[in-house]
Amino acid sequence: xxxxxxxxLGSGVRPEKSTATVTHVQAWDSTKESRxxxxxxxxxxxxxxxxxxxxxxxxxVPSKAGRFTVPVLTARQEQLSQPKKICPGFEENRNRPSxxxxxxxxxxxxxxxxxVKELARPKEVSQAWEAERSVYTIVSEGARKAAPRERTxxxxxxxxxxFSACLNATSIPPPRKHFTRTKSLAKxxxxxxxxxxxxxxxxxxxxxxxxxxxxxxxxKLAHPRVRxxxxxxxxxxxxxxxxxxxxxxxxxxxxxxxxxxxTKHL
Length: 266
Fold this sequence. Notes:
Elements: H1 5-10, H2 35-39, H3 75-81, H4 90-94, H5 105-108, H6 114-120, H7 141-144, H8 150-156, H9 164-168, H10 180-186, H11 207-210, H12 216-222, H13 241-244, H14 250-256
């Protein structure tokens, strides 16, 4: 049984630093060691990856000597893994000096099989295929020698119309109904007696306006207002005497009174 934690701390001996790498955790057993000793163990190093040959071991670390599976190929797999070989006669016929070359005696005296003869025939056109019609219509012999009937000859004649009766007859238009309300609405709207049209650009000026003399007040108001700059003594915040002695009306006093807010009772 391990010593108590009080003795370890009070003995004054510093425990040696462990260099071992912990890769698995064991459950704490109170009969073997104290809780403090169990918590004083070094932390687990999760950065080490072992070659797990099997996934069924959980209680021990596998051996360092790894077991590897050596692949074994069959004869057929070895044959398929080889690169494809070039045809033996390819290199000889690769650099031909001319497009004409000698034909072997076996090729000249070869006999074609029935299947080759069948494939060598040109493709036949389907029985349902129809060629494009010509622009010029071909009239059959029966249509050229056909004799029309009396009814066909009668319908083939142009229709004649006699317009003399319409030109000589005096056409009387039908009587029209008179609507009083419609006539009144169709009349143009009359202008109001007090309506004044726009003045022309040149209009006559009366003799009184020509001889009128402007008063001193009118002459003063006609002059443009002169405003000084700030550096010349202009004060934009100056309140005029009229505004200082002005009295507010009862309505303005009523509107200037702050509104009473009602508090909500929760």
